[in-house]
Amino acid sequence: MPDTVSPPEAYPVTERNKVRRLHERGRYDHASVHAILDAAMICHIAYIIDGQPYCTPTAFWREGEHLYWHGSSASRMLRKQKAGIPVCLTVTHLDSLVLARCGFNHSVDYRSAMCFGEAYFVEDPAEKARALDVMINRFYPDRAATLRPSTGQELKATTVIGMRIEQASGKIRSKGVADEEEDYALPIYAARFPVRQVIGAAEPCPRMPAGVATPDGLAGFAEGRRLDEILLESQHRLYGDE
Amino acid sequence: MPDTVSPPEAYPVTERNKVRRLHERGRYDHASVHAILDAAMICHIAYIIDGQPYCTPTAFWREGEHLYWHGSSASRMLRKQKAGIPVCLTVTHLDSLVLARCGFNHSVDYRSAMCFGEAYFVEDPAEKARALDVMINRFYPDRAATLRPSTGQELKATTVIGMRIEQASGKIRSKGVADEEEDYALPIYAARFPVRQVIGAAEPCPRMPAGVATPDGLAGFAEGRRLDEILLESQHRLYGDE
Question: Could B147 and A103 be called an inter-chain contact, meaning their C-beta atoms sit closer than 8 Å?
Fold first, then answer.
């Protein structure tokens, strides 16, 4: 019997998540979309209140096919309406500036993912406490257990919102300068400038008691490293390749 | 007669743009909001199609109280409905990761701005051509005049969308670690990790003819510089302090 290879899991494509402009850049398989999400800490969430769209930045994290964030003003809408509300959660990494030989071909290299689903409150106190520990550990490996435990008051003051990814699409451009064939010979400067988000040297809180060491879990947080690589490592450390 | 000082110009505050969570971080004056916008190239735009919110990343630029971008899928909605459509355009800069002594006080330092208005097509061909030149020069000083001119076909294929900022709010956190007074003495590692977006060394297109020099206008694009600082300089070079 021949070995069978399963096709990669992918999100269903409809009008909602189909990549329209430059559709050759589109990705719908889970692995591509997850890789874009897991390299980020900040997303932007679109939601509607009384017919007005809002776009709010927030920290988020992924657990399987669920995304979580806390305390955005989407809470306002959720509180009004007990059922889930439709949201679009988007992540974007800017990877380069592309200076071409004509205005039309100026561009950027980037990776972005749009996720569609319905937002709901995580209300169970135990589930909420677990979610917040996961958030800490997802960004900063093994950190939650080293912290002063959350108080009941803190948990009460924290809103955790979740959504299942019903549909998603990724979009990637990575080709740098791409000009019209007849333009390459023109005496015009054209170049790609890489862009990356990096962390600087840790600034330890000056009020720490003497002798508190940097935890092993933060070994990856080295000066000058790319934040997207650090975040991807943290996610894999907690969840493997899920 | 005493000198009079005008109060700084500010956006009107209503339910739509009032900063709710952590309202002490809110800013409504034009100068604060513009400074956040002008330090960015990429924004996220929320809009509604058939009751579904979408959140799309795109390059944008500011000219006075108008914002412009091109070719987002908001075009789909605009095409259906001739009148302006409500949008929310948001810019976010992540400035640091803040690791506190309890989960609740973990945070990030950031600058963000949300702008509300109605999107419309820039349809006049001359205005469109000018807008695209401005876009190039706003990011890359004096560059538009050095390029191969746009063809009629290219202009036709480009959609330029504009909006007047009706209302906006900025939000800034920059205080680093801030713990409960009684937690500072605990033997827990706490620190701030600065985050910055930087550009790398230019990668000139290998197909340039010999002898094409780097234009003077790109002198600010030096390896390792912060992109937000470069973009703010470019904006001021074109528009001064407007």
Answer: yes
Please choose, from the candidates B199, B187, B195, the residue with its C-alpha nearest in 3D space to the C-alpha of residue B226. Answer: B199
Could you report the predicted ipTM of this complex, rounded to two decimals? 0.94
pLDDT value at A1 more than 70: no
Torsion angle defined by CA atoms of residues A14, A18, A24 and A27, in that order, rounded to the nearest 10 degrees: -80
Nearest Cα to Cα of residue B229 among B202, B201, B204, B198: B198
Right CATH for A23-196 from 3.90.870.10, 2.30.110.10, 3.40.640.10, 2.30.42.10: 2.30.110.10
- pLDDT per residue over B168-209, tens digit each? 999 999 999 999 999 999 999 999 999 999 999 999 999 999
Sorted by where each begins, the domain ranges of chain B are 23-196
> CA nearest B105: which of A209, A153, A56, A162?
A153
Chain B CB contacts of A103 under 8 Å are 132-133, 135-136, 144, 147, 150, 154
Those residues whose C-beta lies under 8 Å from the C-beta of residue B199, and which sit 6 or more positions away, are A97, A193, A194, A195, B221, B222, B223, B224, B225, B227, B230
Compute the C-alpha angle A45/A75/B10, nearest 5°: 70
- Best A41, A42, A44 member to test B by mutation, with max B CBs in 10 Å, is A44
Task: Tell me the per-residue pLDDT of B208-229, one tens digit each, with 9 for 90 and over.
Answer: 999 999 999 999 999 999 999 9
Read off the pLDDT of residues A140-161 as tens digits, 9 standing for 90 and up. Answer: 999 999 999 999 999 888 889 9
